[in-house]
Amino acid sequence: MSNEKSANAMSRQWLMLFAVWAIATIATLSSLFFSEIVKLPVCSLCWYQRIAIYPLVLIMPLALFPLDKKVIAYAGILTLFGWLVALFHVLLVAGIIPKAAQPCVQDIPCSETHLNLFGFLNMPMMSLLTFTLMAVLLFLAKNRDSEESM
What we know:
about 150 residues, mainly alpha, 4 helices, about 5% strand, protein-disulfide reductase activity, oxidoreductase, redox-active center, transport, DsbB-like_sf
């Protein structure tokens, strides 16, 4: 009975980490589509967010086959970094952070958005939601690991 419970917990943990990989892959392909096909300009903050999410596409599958729970720490650090940059970017676009604090070059200002869905869903907000969802999944996978070790 205990082995079956442990196997179920491992299976749910694996699914959560797989979901993080799927989200990172969709976000990576979407960012490449918008920059390389649609030709939307990429600002400095967008590049920092890409630096945080692109490695997850390669790191996560290595930890899934077989399941290596150490990936939660590595993925968590990248996700936290990306989340902080995305939050800064959202606040900059919203005008809460002054434009003088933006690190972008003059030709591609970080405060401008070129895609806006439903009046509020721009690229920085999509990035923030993506990193938030990945952080929640990583947190749940970590807690599953803690419950399992008790």
